[in-house]
Structures are given as C-alpha cells and as structure tokens.
Amino acid sequence: MTLLAAVDLRVERAGRVILDGIGVAAQPGEFIAVIGPNGAGKSTLLRVLAGLQSPDRGGVTLGGKELTGRTLSSEDLRQLARLRAFLPQGAHCEWPIAVERLVGLGLTPSLPALGDFTLSDRARIDAALEACDLSAQRQQPVTTLSGGELARAMLARALVGDPEVLMVDEPLAGLDPRHTQDAARRLQLLAAGGKLVIASVHDLTIALRRATRVWALKEGRLLADGPPPSVMTAELLRELFDLEASVAGSGARAYIDF
Amino acid sequence: MRRGTRLVMVMSAMLLVLAAASLATGRGGHLLSGPTDEAEARLLRLILWELRLPRLVLALLVGAALGLSGAVLQGLTRNPLAEPGLLGVSSGAALGAVIAIYTGLGFLWSLSIPLLGLAGAFGATALTLTLGGGGGVLVLILAGAAVSGLMLAGTALALNLAPNPYAAYEITQWMMGSLADRSWHEVLLAAPFVLAGSALLLSTGRGLDALSLGELQATSLGVDLARLRRRVLLGTALAVGAATAVTGAIGFIGLLAPHLVRARVGHQPGRVLWPAALCGALLLLAADLATRVVPLQPELKLGVLTALVGTPFFLWLVWRMKRVAT
C-alpha cells in the first residue's frame, strides 16, 4: 500500500529551479532520511509533500487524497493535519507560552473549537514531554529555552498528536549527542511501529544506522533512492557533497567520515 | 487555568463596583438616599433608566469590543502594538459619521450618524480586505494603514470644507469620543453588531493559538489562515465599527487591555480574549467615570482622557520592549 506518492515534482522560485522531476513513494513503517547539501531542495520537498506548498508541476497523493492542483478547503486542511504532522526547520514560538502549552498546540486538529484539554489530552502531552526529556521544563516559557531544548519541545509538539505520517525538517539540528541519539531512536521506533517518518538530516551516520531508506537530493534532483547501505557509498557521497567521504563498519557500528 | 479564572473573577468584581459607582455618579445624587415624594421618585427613575443605564451598558459593550478586538488583532499579527485602528475600521467609522454631520443629515435624523458610521466601518474593512486579502499579515497591515490614511484624509477634508463653524465644531466634538447623552436608541443600534462581531472574534482562539508557531506550522495544524483573517476582519468591523459609530473615536483601550491581562494568562493568545474583553470594559467604564468626576467645564471627553492616560502607557510599553530586546 502506498501511503505517500509524488510524481514529477517541479518547483521554481524567481527563475531558479528548486525541485526538478522528483518522483517518490513511501509506505507505512519507513523511516526515510532526506540528505543533501544546503540548497538541494530538502525543505521545499518536505513542504510540498506535506501539502503546504503547491508545486509548479506534478502531483502529491497522501493517504489516498490528492493534495495538489486545487485549493484545500478548511475541512481538507483539518483532515490532513490529523493524518500528518509537519515541523519546519528552525521552528520557534512568537509568545512566551509555557512548554506544555506549546506541546499541546500539536493537538489543535483534534480539539473542539472551545474548551480546555481533556484528561486524555493531558496524558498525551505528559507522554510527549517525557519522551523528549522536557518534564522538568514544562512550566518554563518557551522563549527562555536554549536552542536545543526548543528543538526538542518542537519535536514533542509534532509527536503529541500521534500522526500516521511525520515530516520533520532537520529535527536533530542543535541537539547535544545524547538528545540527538534519543530523538533519532524515537523516530526509528515510530517507523518500526508502523508510522511513516520522513526527516531531513545532516548527521549521515544516523541516517546510515537508523533510517530504512535514504533520498539523496542535489540541486533539486533525486540522485538516489534506496536502503542506506546501498545508497550511501563513498562514491555517491562524493558526488553529493563534493567532498571525499569514507564509509566504514556495518550495521549498528557503521559510520561515515569526511 | 486557575490563574486565568481568578483574574476573570477579580475583574468581574471590580466591574460590579464600578458599574454601581457609574450609576450613582452625577447630578441628582441626593435622590439616591431616598426620594421624598412622587415627583422625586419619577425623576430618579428617569435619571437611572433613561440616562445612566444606557450609558453604563454602552460603556461595557464598547469597552469589551475594543479590548477583545485588540487582543485578536495582536494575536493575528503576532505584534503587541496592533490595535483596532490598524485595519482602518475606526477611521472608516469616523469618516462615515463625519459625513453624516457634514451633510447635515445628522441634524435631521440623529441615528443617521451611527448608521453611516457603521457603513463607513464596513466600507473601510471591505477595502482593506480587497487590497490586502490573501497576501499574508504584513500585506494586510500595510493595506489597513493605507485605508486608514485615506479615511483620515477624508475626515480632514470634511473639516476643511465644513459649511459653517458649527458643523466643524460638531465634527471635532464627535471625533473626541464620548458616552455622554447616549440613549437606548444607540445601545439597541450597536448591541446586535457588537455581540455578533464579538462572537466571531471569540471563535478565533484556536487559530490564534496555532499561529503562535508561525503561519506555516499553523497551516500544518489545520488552520485555514485565509478564513481566519476574514473572520478577524469581519468581527472587528462589526464590533469596533458599531462601537465607534455610536461613541466616536476612543483610542488605546484596544491596545492596553490585552497587555494588562496577557502575562496573567500565560501569554497564550486564545486565552487572552475573554479577559481582554473584560479588561476593556473595565477600563472604559473607569475612564467614563473619571470624565464625570474630574471637575472640568466643559466635561472632559472620553477619547481625550483615554489618549492622555494611554500615551504614557504606550511609551512604557516601548521602553519595556527596548529593555527586553537589549
């Protein structure tokens, strides 16, 4: 069963081609790492796949629904929001609300128009805070968090609604080694539990060890699409990043060095 | 949550005290201690029922509309300096009313002033939405500023071309904003619009909460931003347009009220709405009471008082933001 499919995506901005002829498909249970140099089009691809940006050409289908070629109605948007969570790169909050309130915003698509959180909502928020190691900071205003803590709070915000599809743009940026491993393991576990996880990452070792699949993007084109060990070869990485790379070890001990 | 509830309770209690004070303040105070004969009793009923009560109800309605729309607009724009005047709503209402006075229509039929004021508010809002709709919040603000400027220019033109000094005097009096000499007619005219607008504004809470995360994340959370913006604009036009149409321009309440309550409800935009409405009502009632207590002849105008008290607060806000920024 194909959960997500994109055909021949093309996006142009101010005469520059951002995405060009991209076709991908994804199933539940996959943890897809999107890799590539800065400006390769990773963020744009995630936004288009999430239904938040219309491509100039091509189409996206998510959960059996066409996302492109029309204006999404309010009801479409809400249904889409219940199905997939999206987290942009460098997400931040404009008001100094408490961390637990920020995480609670992730439940917006399933909340009624008025009223406070129910007990089960609160339990979900507690679980998400616990999962992202933020229980001690739950009352703290988000504007006083460190960069890494904020990134974790935002990840908790994306996880709290337990979406079938999770699309996250650089969720590991700014995290310390322990929290990087924690977050990566959490994404891996979600996928193992039957969710579809698509994350852009710059930590290639994590992509190699934990992802079930890699999409390698360069200059808006999909250079490779496949299981990490077969895609992430020294040769492809050199082509992707214009840098000599070495891939060593295998399985859980595999790593990539530049 | 508990903090917010306590805040609402404290403000409600203050509102009751001020409302009682408002009813008892002014000429004829000696009657309150007990009228001595039938004529005095009738006079007391007349004063309370025909003068004080409509004034009180109008103060509550208008203050709440201003405070609520200020909170909603600050949430929508994520800008703490946003206020109802921003979208051209107040200046549109002012222009409509001024046209009624200018053409002499207001002297023939006094309800034409609020009615044209309401029409002006809607015209300005429609113009803002046409010019700035679908282009994001910044474009909306810029369009609002342009429309606001246009309405102010029209008002200035009316003053400039005023047929006689009396018309010019009437226009300036009206623009200073006041609750004096308002009857049930004005209350009944404004109330349906204020209530309908407020209901629309109160329904935006979830969307405003999600917008704290920015437009992209809000959309990803299922918020239809175009629809949210339309609702905010329509709600403001109804509530603030109707309020301005019957009372004249009253500034700063919409700016101040959300700030006074925001920190006490944890800064979440959706939770600021009810307390800001309450706080706006409280502020306007207090200001109206002050204009009646301050022994000045002629009576100090409400809009003048709110501007006098509001400007230092605005400066304090700027100073505090500067301090936080550095």
Describe this structure in words.
The complex is a heterodimer of chains A (258) and B (326). Chain A is 33% helix and 26% strand. Chain A is α/β, with parallel strands linked by helices and 258 residues long. Chain A has one domain (4-91, 163-257): P-loop containing nucleotide triphosphate hydrolases (Rossmann fold), CATH 3.40.50.300. In chain A, the strands form three sheets. Chain A has a six-stranded mixed beta sheet, with helices on both faces. Chain A has a four-stranded antiparallel beta sheet with strand order 2-1-4-5, with helices on one face. In chain A, helix 4 packs across helix 5 (147-159). The model of chain A has no long low-confidence stretch (mean pLDDT 94). Chain B has 326 residues and is mainly α. Chain B has one domain (47-320): ABC transporter involved in vitamin B12 uptake, BtuC, CATH 1.10.3470. Helices cover 79% and strands 0% of the residues of chain B. Chain B contains 15 helices and no strands. Chain B has helices at residues 2-24, 29-32, 38-77, 89-102, 105-108, 112-132, 136-160, 165-176, 184-202, 205-211, 215-220, 225-247, 253-262, 269-293, 302-325. In chain B, helix 4 crosses helix 6. The radius of gyration of chain B is 20 Å and the shape is globular. The two termini of chain B are 31 Å apart. The model of chain B has no long low-confidence stretch (mean pLDDT 89). The A-B interface holds A 47, 50, 52, 73-74, 77-82, 84-88, 91-98, 101-102, 105-106, 108-109, 111, 113-114, 116, 141, 157 and B 1, 78, 203, 205-206, 209-214, 216-217, 219-224, 227, 266-269.
